[in-house]
Specification:
176 residues, alpha/beta, Rossmann fold, 41% helix, globular
Length: 176
């Protein structure tokens, strides 16, 4: 019999999991970010490309390939956008992560921001997901208070901000 190994959902199925920043760190959170920060952004993009990691939307587009499309050294700001609208029929993959393991969700955003050398990430969330929005915003506040986000993000003297933007649930808003 094949045994299931949970990676992304390992914490959300644990009823005793502490989703605070302290709890996330205690459960081994930020190991992936620490590993990523030891690499050059280009190396990280190549690693993600070779891993076969795909987006969680309907198309399952390769994440590393998408990151590799970012223009390099333009002098213009770049942004990472996370579409957590869940506009595909019958889907509910994002809201559980945002609600029950927000720091895991945000760690992925921070890794993506580092990989494409951007200073601001936006998370687009369906407006009806009040509990998930509240959970994400509370986690983001904890990251600013702890100094993980803001002026000296990653301890590298560069600013990184994450912002939750809510929508109205219209399908056209969730399209890429």
């Amino acid at each position: 019999m094949i045994e299931e190994t949970l990676v992304l959902f390992k914490n959300i199925r644990n009823p005793d999991y502490d989703k605070s920043l302290k709890g996330y760190k205690k459960s081994g959170g930020f190991k992936a970010l620490k590993k990523a920060l030891k690499m050059k952004p280009e190396e990280l993009v190549e690693l993600v490309k070779s891993s076969g990691l795909r987006g969680r939307g309907g198309a399952g587009f390769p994440t590393g390939l998408k990151w590799s499309f970012m223009a390099k050294n333009t002098g213009k700001p770049s942004y990472l956008i996370c579409n957590a609208d869940e506009s595909e029929p019958g889907t509910c993959k994002d809201r559980e992560l945002m609600l029950k393991d927000p720091h895991n969700f945000l760690e992925g955003m921070m890794i993506g921001c580092y990989a494409i050398n951007c200073r601001h990430g936006y998370i687009y969330v369906r407006g009806e997901y009040f509990p998930s929005i509240k959970s994400l915003n509370a986690a983001i506040d904890e990251l600013y208070t702890d100094g993980v986000l803001g002026e000296n993000a990653f301890g590298k003297g560069k600013r990184l901000d994450l912002t939750v933007h809510t929508g109205a649930g219209a399908y056209i808003c969730g399209e890429e």
